[in-house]
Specification:
Radius of gyration: 28 Å
Number of strands: 18
Helix content: 40-55%
CATH topology of the largest domain: Rossmann fold
Length: 474
């Protein structure tokens, strides 16, 4: 009699080269209420799975043509494999354990099989499969309503981005994300990771603009103790830390060209060697890269190697600027206010219509990041109720250049007398911005509209000039 807890549409595929065992197993599982397909080996199983997906796979390990280990490996490479139960004969236990660990199989059974135990495990595997199916369905519904993981957007341009993310996420392919600063490139990378089979693994991000060239390779590849001055202990790099997960190379265009060549080799060989190390370490990492540079310009100027670009540009996602996302401002504002309420324990409900009108007229050069900063300030000041124009910065909507030209008397304003050179004006602007951000260099670089690497280079240049002036050098 069929088990009422197992829905008839729950599909199970059995792959086993022993005909009697395959037939007996199919008959038993069918009696529990499952729809069963069979395959004589891994090759036939792959063919059947390509035509009709299943909820649970039950596979023997030792089979002709394509064995169980290779079957699971190929399914994992294709992305989103079904929960799999491995069957093994006595003497193959170590291989079965390795299969469960390395290839994510649900569990393994030693032959002969205990029917009661298999029945319980099948129910659990089927429940997991249905839960994943339901989660994917809900995510798809949300994305059509303008939400995908932490991304928000209902305009056609963002819906196209959502569609690409859903298609790309299950694969292992590299992704290159482009877009202006502040458009949400890291959120896209995190969404890809969250919706991928690697979601249970780590997500590691490294900002290529924030590290000097001397430390870049150590951060990426790791180092052994004594590899260089200051290397007092062994340290794993980002590739090792992201094992079985996703690595985001943020602001790839700022990575030194020499390091790009070494990165390319790691991507091609899937192996890293720590600085000062003698052995190579195998890594299984999906790489996602982002840049706010115009890729064609970076290639033409030699800032981005062509071979690395072609290796990473399997899929490309370009995020639209906020000014190009017609109709998304109310949705984004609502989502960000909810986020800020949770962060600051406030109870802000919405913004006044005249504030939304100001938001709509503004061009948002800092994109969603700038919107987030404006709303965070407003939410803190309002505390509860509605955000009014009084909660916005005094100079909101005024271009940066126009702000500098205004005769304002605020302590953090820059006054530039006639005759000030461009280099002097630049230095004053950087200094006052650092004071304003309390020496938060990342935030200062965002306000100034330059990369963190450029800001560090400018400060280094100013420091060298002061040292030279102090030494009395001509």
């Amino acid at each position: 009699m069929a088990n009422a807890t197992a829905a008839p549409q729950t599909r199970v595929l059995i792959a086993d080269d022993e005909e009697n065992q395959r037939a007996g197993l199919a008959k038993m599982i069918q009696s529990w209420g499952y729809a069963v397909e069979t395959a004589a080996d891994g090759q036939e199983a792959l063919e059947k799975l390509s035509q009709s997906p299943v909820h649970v796979l039950v596979t023997d390990l030792m089979m002709p043509r394509v064995d169980g280990f290779e079957l699971l490996k190929r399914l994992q490479a294709q992305g989103d494999p079904p929960p799999s139960i491995v069957l093994t004969a006595f003497g193959n236990i170590e291989t079965a354990v390795q299969t469960v660990h390395d290839l994510g199989a649900f569990w393994f059974f030693e032959k002969p099989i205990q029917a009661s135990a298999l029945k319980v495990l099948l129910e659990r595997a089927a429940n997991q499969s249905r839960l994943e199916e339901e989660t994917e369905r809900l995510q798809r519904q949300l994305s059509y309503k303008g939400v995908l993981v932490d991304l928000v957007g209902g305009c056609p341009a963002m819906q196209q981005v959502f569609s690409l993310i859903r298609q790309i996420a299950p694969s292992k392919a590299a992704v290159l994300i482009g877009g202006e600063s502040g458009t949400g490139k890291e959120l896209v990378a995190r969404a890809i990771h969250h919706l991928s089979p690697r979601s249970s693994g780590p997500f590691v991000a490294i900002n290529c603009a924030a590290l000097p060239e001397t430390l870049m390779e150590s951060e990426l590849f790791g180092h052994e103790k004594g590899a260089f001055t200051g290397a007092v202990e062994r340290r794993a790099g980002c590739f090792e830390l992201a094992q079985h997960g996703t690595l985001l190379l943020d602001e790839l265009g700022e990575m030194p060209v020499g390091t790009q060549a070494k990165l390319l080799r790691v991507l091609e060989d899937s192996c890293v060697r720590r600085l000062g190390g003698k052995t190579e370490i195998s890594v299984d990492v999906r790489v996602v890269a982002s840049t706010n540079k115009v890729i064609e310009d970076a290639l033409r100027k030699g800032e981005l190697r062509e071979d690395l670009y072609y290796r990473l540009n399997v899929f490309q996602i370009t995020l639209p600027a906020l000014r190009e996302r017609d109709g998304d401002l109310p949705m984004l504002t609502e989502a960000l206010i909810e986020s800020m309420n949770r962060k600051h324990d406030t109870r802000v409900v919405d913004v006044q219509p005249d504030v939304m009108e100001q938001f709509t007229r503004y061009s948002w050069p800092g994109n969603v990041r700038e919107l987030r900063n404006v709303l965070e300030r407003a939410v803190i000041l309002a505390g509860e109720g509605t955000i009014t124009s009084h909660h916005l910065p005094r100079d909101f909507g005024v271009p940066v250049g126009a702000r500098l030209a205004q005769p304002i008397s605020e302590p953090d304003a820059v006054r530039l007398p006639v005759g000030t050179t461009v280099s002097e004006a630049e230095r004053l602007l950087i200094q006052i911005t650092l004071q304003h951000t309390r020496n938060n260099k990342t935030r200062a670089a965002e306000i100034l509209g330059i990369s963190l690497k450029t800001l560090f280079n400018k400060l280094k240049e100013y420091g060298a000039a002061e040292a030279e002036a102090g030494s009395g050098a001509p």
